[in-house]
């Protein structure tokens, strides 16, 4: 792994510095379970210093920049990321345990986010509003100020792109608290931002524990917007902290996303999406498709085709670039095994295979396809966050909708059918922030607004919509007679 920064430092006010806490945390390679170094254990004092640096940036060079200048800087940062794709992929693959080609996709997505938000920065406009005689009324879109970004370990680069990328485009100054399990790509990103010439304090990165640095950031009275991706439990705490300071919050809390397959679907086209959406990143994906709903007439056929696909899945070290890598941690593996313990062998339709040379200390779980359980079984309702998919049969559209909408979540959903009317009906009836018709995930399209309903959270990131979320609308009413 090729690192060009000191992993034990925090990035604050445009400079690398040792954390005020003077403490560090060990990091490991999930493929081997062995230590690969240390990161800073940033604490409340480090968050204070980062927030102060962000405030200074808003009062200084960063706050004075035009939207076009900000856009140019983001585009330049995107180009620096593009030049470092292989190094970033290597870092993420080692730190997260992502198969190398999946890590490369994340680095490419980060560059694309920066390209998109760089181009969008000077295209966010207010409007003029027809009003009473003697008035001219218009709206301005202004930054919140200091924005706090608490992100998880599953897709650090993509989440930095969609969250920090959009916030910077709107002129906010960001304090980013990456997850303790996977900080390295965030630190690499900070250094690329420094190299791109981002003004001091526009971006600050403070690694640390959730209950320390994360809690301090979410409670900080000078932070004017919070954006969080992670678990429902912590999301609740972040929303409570935001309520305390009366600041807006964007929450992206995962899901139990269904793909609904009707008997007129093109199964050849659907099959790779059905499987891949469940096992990508070892199922540790907020928008993982962990439920496959299949119409009765094709249920047996699809079960056997999916089972055959699972037979061919291999699991091993991230560097081997197989279908599935390790889970992020021993703890995450325990969580997933706890779910699997709630069922028995009769319900396991098929499993992938952990290859023989997978390192002994890695956190591997063979992908598992489950059938024959009720839609209200925990495995079919709760987010597992591992390579586990459940197949559930349904009778007709009403029944499919009832099962699909029958969890607390609502992040994404898909419908596979050749019937255009059915596609439109399902798109309306499925409770989710994104609905895909005859595909799943739309290749991650950075242009497409993304976010959930229910326990999946609220607020939208990605696309142009994120720029509205990361800005405040001001109405100016001028009376001139
Ligand atoms: P988590 O919600 O604890 O961690 C996400 C981020 O929140 C990390 O940066 C963490 O340091 C921070 N955090 C933790 N406690 C905090 C606190 N009290 N105040 C402020 N920030 C805090 O998620 P975890 O424990 O890593 O994973 C547990 C489960 O959460 C997973 O099994 C999965 O179901 C879900 N999850 C969902 C994600 C998604 O993409 N929506 C991402 C990661 C986890
Ligand atoms: Mg946690």
Topology:
Layout: E1 10-12, E2 15-17, E3 24-29, E4 34-40, H1 44-59, H2 61-64, H3 67-83, H4 85-96, H5 100-120, E5 128-129, E6 135-143, E7 146-150, H6 156-169, E8 173-177, H7 184-196, E9 203-205, H8 210-219, E10 223-229, H9 232-245, E11 249-252, E12 257-261, H10 267-279, E13 289-295, H11 296-311, E14 314-315, H12 330-340, E15 348-351, E16 353-354, E17 368-371, H13 378-381, E18 388-394, H14 397-404, E19 412-416, H15 420-429, E20 434-437, E21 457-458, H16 465-469, E22 471-479
Parallel strand pairs: 7-8, 7-10, 8-9, 10-11, 12-13, 12-19, 13-18, 14-16, 17-18, 19-20
Antiparallel strand pairs: 1-2, 3-4, 5-6, 6-22, 11-21, 15-17
Helix pairs in contact: 1-8, 3-5, 3-7, 4-5, 5-6, 10-11
The structure holds 1,4-dihydronicotinamide adenine dinucleotide (NAI) and magnesium ion.
Gap from first CA to last CA: 67 Å
Q: What general form does the structure show?
A: globular
Number of strands: 22
Percent range for helical residues? 25-40%
- The strand order across the widest sheet is 15-17-18-13-12-19-20
Mean pLDDT: 98
Tell me about the biggest sheet? 7 strands, mixed
User: Which runs of at least 5 residues are low in confidence (pLDDT < 50)?
Assistant: none
Q: Helix/strand/pairing class, anyone?
A: alpha/beta
Could you explain the architecture of this structure?
- With 481 residues, this protein is of the alpha/beta class.
- The protein contains 16 helices and 22 strands.
- It is 39% helix and 22% strand.
- The strands form six sheets. It has a seven-stranded mixed beta sheet, with helices on both faces. Strands 9-8-7-10-11-21 form a six-stranded mixed beta sheet, with helices on both faces. Strands 5-6-22 form a three-stranded antiparallel beta sheet.
- Bound molecules: 1,4-dihydronicotinamide adenine dinucleotide (NAI) and magnesium ion.
- 1,4-dihydronicotinamide adenine dinucleotide (NAI) is lined by residues 150-152, 154, 177, 179-180, 210-211, 214-215, 218, 229-231, 234, 237, 252-254, 286, 335, 383, 385.
